[in-house]
Amino acid sequence: MHHSYCKHSKGKVSYLESPERRKQFSPEQLLNMIPLKETDSILDFGAGTGYFSIPAAKRIKGSVYALDIDAAMLEIIKEKALEEQLTNIVPVQGSMEALPLSDGSIDMIIASLVLHEIQPLVPLLQEMKNVLKKEGYLICLELEPKGSSEKAPRITLEGMEREMKEAGLQVTEKFFPAESLYMLVAQKKD
Question: pLDDT of the chain along its 190 residues, tens only?
Fold first, then answer.
């Protein structure tokens, strides 16, 4: 039982680190598209191997909270941060349902290819909204579902937008950075 989980985890790591993924849409491209300030604090929600955490930490003086449920992923992030001599990454092991951060403490949340896994989504989005500072941003990257043959659960751009509105977030920008990939920028408006 344990063995197959490790294999799955390794497969996940190789996908998360794949050059194809980077070519399609690099973390640098994303960071260039968002209203990032040097003093920001960022939550990388479902950080995985630090695909966004590491490049973000290089750009800002604030903290990057790398949140993942999987301790093995956080170990990878710690190793990378050490290699890159980054001291502003804070690995956070936590569940997706209860964010272990105080309200109004984060300028920007990056949630890449993770929100489609959460049902129901609105309570989490409301929690994210609470963690954000006034005028803070939620950056959401997801794959647009292609037909009904897909096995993986996906959420359409319209569906995600609806969920965000219901949670009290305002979508300010929409991008299609790569084929079948959409990016929503939502802002906390009070």
Answer: 333 333 345 566 666 666 676 677 789 989 999 999 999 999 999 999 999 999 999 999 999 999 999 999 999 999 999 999 999 999 999 876 778 899 999 999 999 999 998 889 999 999 999 999 999 999 999 998 876 555 667 899 999 999 999 999 999 999 998 888 999 999 998 7
User: Could you give the CA distance from residue 145 to residue 153 in angstroms, rounded to a whole number?
Assistant: 8
CB burial of residue 138 (10 Å; 0-12, 13-18, 19+): buried
Structure-token match 């950080």, residue found:
47
How many Å apart are CA 25 and CA 39, to the nearest integer?
25
Give all domains of the chain, ordered by start, each with its CATH number.
Answer: 25-188 (3.40.50.150)
Q: What pTM does this model have?
A: 0.88
* Cβ 160 vs Cβ 141: under 8 Å: no
